[in-house]
């Protein structure tokens, strides 16, 4: 899969504003609307563009505490624990990391009391977890909304 500078330009514009119409995008990158649509369709088909979404400010919806967890899990239970945690609406994202069966998890909650409840009632009760380390976000400097090509 070879992607040229035009594909990269289209992606960069979409990262800035995923709501751009094909016409607006075509004007910005200097090709026709039909050509833009064809390129986006190909980028989606190739899996380069996974989906279009919106980035929500969680604080505006009352989720003012953002915490990151390193969760060590018994290897034979990793998939089950990951699925269990991924199904929890408090968990914003979860990834398997290098190391001895480690999951990296991002959680959004209303306040510190809810964080304590999540840890004690929902996290520690999951069988297979061997260690939990929590870090609370103080300030966000940059967030993943795509990356520079």
UniProtKB/TrEMBL annotation:
DNA-binding found in the keyword field: yes
A GO MF term: sequence-specific DNA binding
Gene Ontology cellular component annotations, sorted alphabetically: cytosol
Short name of one Pfam family: HTH_24
Biological processes annotated in GO: response to amino acid
Highest taxon, organism lineage: Bacteria
UniProt keyword list: DNA-binding, Transcription, Transcription regulation
Transcription regulation in keyword set: yes
Residue span(s) of domain HTH asnC-type: 3-64
CDD domains xrefs: HTH_ARSR
Protein's name according to its UniProt entry: AsnC family transcriptional regulator
Organism: Lentibacillus populi
């Amino acid at each position: 899969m070879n992607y040229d500078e035009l594909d990269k330009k289209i992606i960069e514009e979409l990262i800035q504003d995923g709501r751009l119409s094909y016409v607006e995008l075509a004007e910005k990158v200097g090709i026709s609307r039909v050509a833009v649509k064809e390129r986006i369709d190909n980028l989606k088909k190739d899996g380069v563009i996974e989906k279009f979404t919106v980035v929500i400010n969680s604080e505006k919806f009352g989720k003012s505490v953002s915490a990151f967890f390193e969760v060590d899990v018994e290897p034979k239970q990793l998939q089950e624990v990951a699925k269990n945690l991924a199904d929890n609406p408090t968990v914003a994202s979860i990834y398997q990391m290098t190391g001895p069966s480690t999951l990296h998890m991002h959680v959004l909650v209303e306040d510190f009391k809810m964080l304590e409840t999540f840890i004690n009632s929902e996290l520690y009760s999951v069988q297979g977890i061997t260690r939990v380390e929590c870090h609370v976000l103080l300030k966000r400097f940059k967030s993943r909304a795509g990356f520079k090509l």
